[in-house]
Amino acid sequence: MRLRCAMDKTEILSITNMSLPELEELCTSMGEPTYRARQILSWVYDKGATTFDQMSNLPKNFQRQLAGLCQVYQTKVDSVTQTADGAEKFLVRPFDENVVECVLLREGKRITACVSTQVGCAMACRFCASGLLGLERNLTTGEMVEQVLHVKGHLLPDERLTNIVFMGIGEPFMNYDNVIRAVRIMNSEWGLGIGARHITISTVGIVDSILRLAHEGLQVNLAISLHAPDDSIRSKIIPSNKKIGIKNIIDAAREYFEITRRDISFEYILIEGVNASGQDAESLARLLKGMQCNINILPVNPVEEFSWRPPSRETIETFCRTLDKHGLVVTLRKKKGGHINAACGQLRLQRCKFLWKNEKYLVK
Ligand code: SF4
Q1: Taking the model in full, what pTM does it have?
Q2: CATH (domain of 223)
Q3: Which of 13, 74, 82, 148 sits 20 to 30 Å CA-CA off 94?
Q4: Could you list the residue range(s) of the whole structural domain that residue 89 is in?
Q5: Residue minimizing CA distance to atom 4 of ligand 1
């Protein structure tokens, strides 16, 4: 029998779904002192235990009781694909046999886990393989926390996970409550212990949630996938923009800054002939005038299903120089993972295609 978590009826009762107070409550309800909760969490987050019988300072009887009631992990790693540029893509299988991706990125001492928040995505951005499969379901808190644990467990002895970005498959703000719970577990001293300023949430611009995040009291970084200087271009790239509207996003971003005093990052994927001209750069500079922000430029990663291609080196440099001329902080990002068909959703897409072909697995 699978028990469901009291906090959320859709979640399996697993340690990675629980906060410290919730686990203390569980321990107390089982007749154990509250300090057992910290012991269990230390085994999971510090020592990498995956089963209760590895937790040698817990009484044997308590280990057995826990194992009968809940589980430590609710996912397992299906495969890890390595790339020449240092990225490693994990295909993670939750309890219901879906598949999600998380990615380990190494850039010098900065070691980042890129986490998925949904199985599939409803946003259907026109440069992203994830949107092609539609939305299957939201991931639970534990399923997000475990992606990071899988990455952490894969690191070399002298490596340390330094950053977490919610930039994998899914729109984090369409799964707001679970994402924020996951962030708190990743950030807490009894959990993964990653500083909030090293955690980034990326959104296409769900306005209500941007403002909600501003009041959470979390020092996390907010990244907004802008990708265009106006609504007519943005709606071609991100269909959901027709309902959102770029002005509402910028207004929300300005309000977010007023409340949190934290800079926002704008992500901008450059697509040849769509949003990469000098005029587009001028319009973008006007749109963001006076904002405390960083702009991350990334040439589009070609996806077999879409015809969009990255611009020439010269066009990219002209675009960046134009923004720089207007006093905006611009960073040109490197593409990672594209050459193994594994950038944002492509690995999962390939896996699903393989399974479709073999008639073993159906994804909507
Ligand atoms: S870019 Fe993000 S929000 Fe857009 S379809 Fe892909 S996963 Fe969804």
Answers
A1: 0.89
A2: 3.20.20.70
A3: 82
A4: 76-357
A5: 125
